[in-house]
Structure formats: C-alpha cells, structure tokens
Amino acid sequence: FTDIQAKLSSLQREAELVGLKINVNKTKEIRLNSRVDRPLELSGKIVEEVESFQYLGSLVTAEGGAKEDVKSRIRKANAAFIQLYPIWRSRYISLKTKIRIFNTNV
Q: pTM for the complete prediction?
C-alpha cells in the first residue's frame, strides 16, 4: 500500500511542478487482487474506491476481464441501432442510402 500511496503523492508533486492539478473528485481507485483496506489519499482527501468505471470508452472492472466491457459495447450498439429503426423501416429511403448509413455507423 505505501508504495502506491508514495507513487500517487509523487505524481501529484510532479504534476504541480508543471502547473497541473489532479482533481481528487474525478480520481477513482480500483483494486485488483489487493487485501489492503486502507484508502488512498490525495491532497488530504480520500480517493473514491469503485468496482468499475469508464475509461476512454471502455469499462474497467475490478475483475480485470473484458466480459463487462463487451456487454456494455453491445448495449450501446443496440441502442444506436434502435434509434435508426425508423430509417431501416422507411420505404422512402433507398437501400443504397440505408447501406451507407449502416456502414457509417459500424
């Protein structure tokens, strides 16, 4: 634990040297294979511990696998496809245009 806390403190110091500030409210902690219960601190505040979070569009979980991320991406794709349902059913839009719309979204 002290190693990761030391690295976090070092990151904060280095960031401040170049005029950057780490926002503790946007900082999350996720533990993988850790038995330590002591919370991380940043600027005297406790970093929120979470089981999962979104990072660059991907779902990161404490289990470390990709299963939940794949499920999340499938749900997002389904939602996008459902929004386009009226276009797929329209008789006034040509098949060629529908294919172009589909290829743009895939």
A: 0.55
